[in-house]
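> call design_seq(struct)
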């Protein structure tokens, strides 16, 4: 798991006392290790489908908030906003079902599959590793740590920026959907309570909209960090989310 940094040729800086130690031990002691299988197929497939769904949701959501100029003629001849909303709702379902599947895999998958679902915020050494990563990203240190799973900073962002926001988007999204599906629909019965809780419908629209920009900030930083780490870091990154294997450069 990401919490344990392995320093080849030296002692392990074992941060947490769980399966992480096994990962670090493998990397630190066996110089012959070429790769570690980290992300299982369901995690990888989910990652790319989820990324695609969020792209569609962000583009269509933007146009729902700022609709295109009026088309000439009958709206029903074009149905532009209808298609945009349909694409939004369809990918909303993909996002929500994918999230449920991902939660299931966190339970049955390997320990890396659980990393984005909790952050060891009470462990001092975790914050030390986060700080080390901040310095590395700010070009203040010359040698980054090596992590088998997510690095500690990435893990923080994936939990606090990605996961919590996505749950928020699903809950507010289905609350808004429930308005169209009307009273008695399952969307309204399960999520209808969100609207009075947040004020009224327009408040939910506004927060749902802001959630999109928060996710977009995460995505920009995430993609930058993934590519930067692939080039400058000590292990594979982007290919790891494709093949599942982490390979080490040194
Ligand atoms: C909408 C766009 C995206 C979202 C929301 C997103 C979200 C995530 C999340 C939640 C994870 C954690 C995976 C897990 O442990 O289950 C992750 C990992 C990862 N993502 Fe993305 N991602 C997006 C796009 C991309 C793109 C375009 C790339 C490639 C440049 C990428 C590369 C990676 C890599 C390499 C990892 C694994 C990082 C590591 O090994 O620590 N992602 N992403
Ligand atoms: C990452 C996920 C999502 C993003 C980025 C996103 C983005 C947006 C944005 C920007 C709006 C326009 C808000 C406004 O200004 O009024 C919107 C509206 C809406 N979204 Fe989402 N959304 C997401 C997920 C979902 C989900 C999971 C659902 C559930 C089906 C959903 C259902 C809706 C509905 C019903 C509306 C209102 C449509 C209307 O008033 O015509 N969204 N979304």
């Amino acid at each position: 798991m990401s919490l344990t940094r392995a320093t080849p040729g030296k002692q392990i800086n074992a941060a947490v006392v769980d399966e992480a130690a096994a990962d670090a031990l493998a990397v630190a002691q066996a110089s012959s290790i070429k790769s570690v299988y980290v992300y299982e197929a369901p995690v990888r497939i989910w990652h790319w489908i989820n990324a695609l769904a969020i792209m569609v949701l962000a583009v269509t959501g933007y146009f729902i908030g700022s609709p295109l100029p009026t088309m000439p003629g009958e709206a029903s001849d074009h149905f532009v906003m209808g298609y945009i909303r349909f694409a939004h709702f369809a990918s909303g379902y993909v996002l929500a079902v994918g999230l449920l599947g991902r939660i299931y895999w966190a339970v049955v998958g390997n320990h890396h599959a659980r990393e984005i679902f909790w952050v060891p915020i009470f462990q001092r050494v975790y914050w030390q590793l986060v700080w080390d990563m901040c310095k590395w990203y700010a070009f203040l240190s010359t040698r980054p740590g090596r992590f088998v799973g997510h690095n500690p900073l990435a893990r923080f962002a994936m939990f606090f920026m990605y996961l919590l926001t996505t749950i928020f988007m699903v809950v507010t999204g289905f609350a808004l959907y429930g308005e169209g599906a009307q009273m008695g629909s399952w969307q309204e019965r399960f999520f209808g309570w969100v609207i009075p809780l947040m004020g009224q419908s327009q408040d939910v629209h506004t927060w749902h909209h802001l959630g999109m920009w928060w996710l977009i900030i995460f995505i920009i930083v995430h993609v930058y960090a993934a590519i930067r780490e692939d080039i400058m870091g000590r292990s594979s990154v982007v290919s790891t989310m494709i093949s599942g294997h982490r390979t080490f450069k040194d």
